[in-house]
């Protein structure tokens, strides 16, 4: 699943009249970049959720025949549900075991096969891609890269769900592999962040991090990040 429904408020003025998913990096929309990224690892069935300028995304998918993949739309036109609510809303469309999610506005060289292999070997409920990089929102991990908490270093907000003596800040790079039963364990409803779900489930279920520090990754969050993205991708 590619999360593509967001308002893209950091990406104005483009998102005043376009969805962020169709912002161009080296002549290709972000959505196309991520569809082709998944194809490199044999994933050709993709759910795309839509809300902001949804018609433009749907038209682009139709015009380009899904860029070679089978695309199914998860419709959030009535209400933007954020990542957690969007995942739950699309749950009936996510039939594979495991399944993978990625945010449309990130570009990465993460080896998805290695992430999936690690996920199977650890028997985790979910495995998140992570890096040691500078940001202001971090997940907190123990020495085995088990999820134990979350911290916002700007606001000083913090939530520890598994207290341990040593916790390390590492940034989520927005690719996740899930066991299918993750969906049945979600107890939130409506509009919510997947971060809340991870933290709720972490004390009783293994949620791991896969560290790919040093590999090319960029959050194409603002217009000025496009130039940096074009150097990498």
Task: Walk me through this protein's architecture.
By secondary structure, this protein is of the alpha+beta class. The chain has one domain (2-232): Alpha-Beta Complex (Spore Coat Polysaccharide Biosynthesis Protein SpsA, Chain A). 25% of the residues lie in helices and 28% in strands. The protein is built from seven helices and 14 strands. The protein has helices spanning 30-39, 54-63, 82-89, 112-122, 182-185, 194-201, 225-232; strands spanning 2-3, 24-25, 28-29, 45-50, 70-75, 99-103, 106-108, 126-131, 137-141, 147-152, 158-160, 168-178, 207-211, 217-219. The strands form four sheets. Strands 1, 6, 8, 9, 10, 11, 12 and 13 form an eight-stranded mixed sheet that branches. The longest helix is centred in the middle third of the chain and has 11 residues, at 112-122. The radius of gyration is 17 Å and the shape is globular. The two termini are 21 Å apart.
List its salient traits:
two-stranded antiparallel ribbon; about 25% helix; single chain; alpha+beta; about 230 residues
**What is the general shape?**
globular
Q: What is the name of the CATH topology?
A: Spore Coat Polysaccharide Biosynthesis Protein SpsA, Chain A
> Quick one: CATH superfamily?
Spore Coat Polysaccharide Biosynthesis Protein SpsA, Chain A
Largest sheet composition: 8 strands, mixed
Strand-and-helix sequence, N→C? EEEHEHEHEEHEEEEEHHEEH
Give the overall average pLDDT. 97
Q: What is the C-level CATH assignment?
A: Alpha Beta
How large, in whole angstroms, is the Cα Rg? 17 Å
Total strands: 14
N-C termini distance: 21 Å
Helix proportion? 25-40%
The proportion of strand residues reads 25-35%
Structural class: alpha+beta
Q: How many H/I helices? A: 7
Low-confidence blocks of residues: none
